[in-house]
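Researcher: Good morning. I'm working through a list of sequences from a screen, and I'd like to move beyond sequence-only analysis. For each chain I'm collecting a predicted structure so we can compare shapes side by side. This is the next one on the list. No need for commentary yet; just the structure.
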Amino acid sequence: IFLKYNLYLQASNKLHRLMIWSYVKEKILEKPLIGHGFFSSRDIANKLRKTQSGTNYQLIPLHPHNSILQIWLELGIFGVLLFFSFIKFILDKIFYYIQINRSVATIAFITFFQVFTIGQISFGFWQSWWLAIILIALILYKYVFKCFKSNALQLDS
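Model: Good morning. Structure tokens for this chain:
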């Protein structure tokens, strides 16, 4: 019975995310260029939606559980373009550092991939602890690559 309940719970959570993302898509289409404003996702849909089985779901419980959708919903296409510019900047840096130390650059890429993936299925983008983790990772890798870069320059001399 535990396994059956656990499977039901997992399926229910996945369906709820799909419902959230579908609703967010509808809201994005209302203001695709400028968005609804910072932190607006928690106020957009406080209502509950009843499914055919009688379960009540919040349309957006605090945030969309998807970074790109949240940024687009709140900041519009300009926010999404800025976000993707930031992602391109990070990936360009990682691929630049492959020349200096392939192992550390690979670990940095894996970290990037994990943070990006988790951001697409789980946390709200503006949560301070989430942004702090991302910032700490950026600072840590900046320091590590700086150390490897200076060591590489010393070895070349």
